[in-house]
Every structure is written in C-alpha cells, then in structure tokens.
Amino acid sequence: MAAILPLPLPLQARIRLAQGLWLLSWLLALAGGLTLISSGHLLLQLWHLSPFLDPTCSFPALPKTALAAGAAALGTGIVGAGATRASLDAARYPPWRGVLGPILVAGTVGGGGLLALAVCLALALPRGLDAALESGLRTALDHYKDTEVPGHCNGKRLMDELQLEYHCCGRHSYKDWFTVQWVSSRYLDPDNQDIIDQIQSNVEGLYLIDGVPFSCCNPHSPRPCVQNQLSTMQAHPLSDPRQPNLNLWEQGCHGVLLRHLWGLASTLATVLGITFLLQVLVLLGLRYLQTALEGLGGAIDGEGETQGYLFPGGLKEMLKSAFQQGLCAQRPVPEEVPPEAPAEETPAEA
C-alpha cells in the first residue's frame, strides 16, 4: 500500500535535509530558551503584582504553560540537533534508530500540544486582565489605611511602592483617593471638630478628603507637592488645580499596569508563535529523514533512491476499519424473535 504524503529523497537531498534540520533544531532550542526567559519574566511580574490582581484571575496560567512548552521546545531542539548530526555518520546513527520514533511522538503530542495550548492562552487570557486589575486595585485602595489589620499590614507600603515605581496615582486617576478613607482612624484626633464634622457628613461614617498619599507626588516637579485640598482653588493660590499633573502622577495605575502586562503577554505570544512554527518544521523534517533512512538501513549514503513519508501505507485503511468497527459497535443489536411453537394437531372426530 502507498505511503501517505511521500517525498522522494535522493542522496544529495537527504544530506541537505539533515544539514538544514541541524540548523533549524538549534534555532528551535534558541526559541525555546527565549520562551523560558519571556514566560519566567512575565510570571515574576505577576508574582510581584499579585496584591493588585483579583485572586480568581486565570492570567498566571499563561506563563506557567509557556514555561513547560519552552522546556519541551528546548529539549526537542537539542535532541533534533543530535539526531541530525548523527544521521550524517552511518556509524553514529544506529543508537538513534530505536528511540527517534518515540521521541517524535512525544515531541508532537507533548511539546506541540503545550505550544498550541500556550498560544491559545496568549490570545484568550489577556481579555480578563482588565477586570482582574480593576477589582484588585479597588481592594488595595480600600485597605490602604489598614496597617494594623492582619492580612493587610503591608497594603500601604505595597501601594506606595507601586505608585512610585510605575509613576501612577489611584486606580484611574488621583481623584480615586477622594472616594476612600486612606487615613487610618488611629491618626485622627477625635476631639477635632473639623474631623468630627467631616465624618458625620458622610453616610458611611468615613473620613473622606480631597487629598492623596505622598506616593502620588512627582519628585521631578520643580514646585513643592500639593497633595491636600486639591479641589479648593483658594487653598493654593500659586497652583492651578486644573493642572494637577504638574505635581502628581497623571496616569492611573490600572492603565499603566494593563499596558505593561499586555506588552509582556504580546511579546510572549510572538515568541510562542515562532517557537511553534519551528517545532512543526523540525518534527516534520525529522519524520521524513527518519523514514528515508529506515528504507536504507540507517545509512544516509546508502545506494539507490528512497522516499520519506509521514505515515506508513495502510494507515488510512486501518483508521477506516477502526471507524467502521466503532460504528458497528454503537448500532443496537436487533432482538431475536423467539420461534413460534408448532400448532398441536387435533384428533379427527370419528
């Protein structure tokens, strides 16, 4: 029976195929290493920003899957380089004949499957990152004042470090701080009438002010930072409240973090796509080279012309037969009709 997708491979074509696969295999190993670096960097960034992400966020599944896919691609590239180099020497190739087939199956099912899954995750998961950051940053602002509450003791420090490192203020703008009580009640004078009036004027009993934490201040600003009474023009006659970005970080942390993580995810998706393409080329080339050498007894310089193929002859018929057997197994077996009992003969009347 004819093989599926055969490819004639004379001597020179076999040699060029082995040499080209050796180069592609090292490129695949390099791409696998870059995938490991990119996914590791993204995973580290997500760990660093985890206090500002919703706990139910599934985005970390992307770098974790990409790490496994990168390791598989790196291993496939190294194995492919070794196998193609050995195929050029008839004395070194025999040890590969028994293991190259299982390696190709594992590389196709394991490595190829992981890469395809990682590419799909890179295209799908970033869409849920927006809501995860929205929820996480809202929680971070609400617990900024809870420096003595178990589980939130480091909330203030982490939020201040975030705003200073990423040059952002609030969730979407500095005005987000106006809607939360970010000053701990521990530092409020209970005898101060202004504070009492401010708390009583709020339905929820919160101390809300038109000010922001110090970490919203831009240290590059030439003027002193204005962080209190930002909506009162008379309080700062020399400052223009319509231009707070002269003193404060202009962008909200949500947009800054979203662009940062999307950029890392896009870079990882590009590296994954290149790695997936190289893996497909290497696996296909190795399969054609393996089947071609099997027809020559493992010697690349064997006499005569041979051909490589993807699947052996008879595979189509075998799959068709198995499919038909499955259909037959699913068909209900017709019930057997019991044979009718013979009618009893009545004796004739005399």
Give the amount of beta strand, in percent: under 5%
Let me know the largest β-sheet.
Answer: 2 strands, antiparallel
Weakly predicted, low-confidence segments: none
Give the strand order of the largest sheet, numbering strands 1, 2, ... along the chain: 1-2
Total number of helical segments? 9
What structural class should be given to the helix and strand makeup? mainly alpha
Radius of gyration: 35 Å
Number of strands: 2
Structural commentary:
This protein has 350 residues and is an all-alpha fold. Helices cover 53% and strands 2% of the residues. It has 9 helices and 2 strands, in the order βααααααααβα.
Task: Summarize it.
This protein has about 350 residues and is mainly α. The protein is built from nine helices and two strands, in the order E-H-H-H-H-H-H-H-H-E-H.
Features:
mainly alpha, 9 helices, single chain, two-stranded antiparallel sheet, 350 residues, rod-shaped
Q: Could you give the topology of this structure?
A:
Layout: E1 7-9, H1 11-48, H2 61-87, H3 94-97, H4 100-124, H5 129-142, H6 155-166, H7 193-200, H8 253-294, E2 306-308, H9 315-330
Antiparallel strand pairs: 1-2
Helix pairs in contact: 1-2, 1-8, 2-4, 2-8, 4-8, 5-8
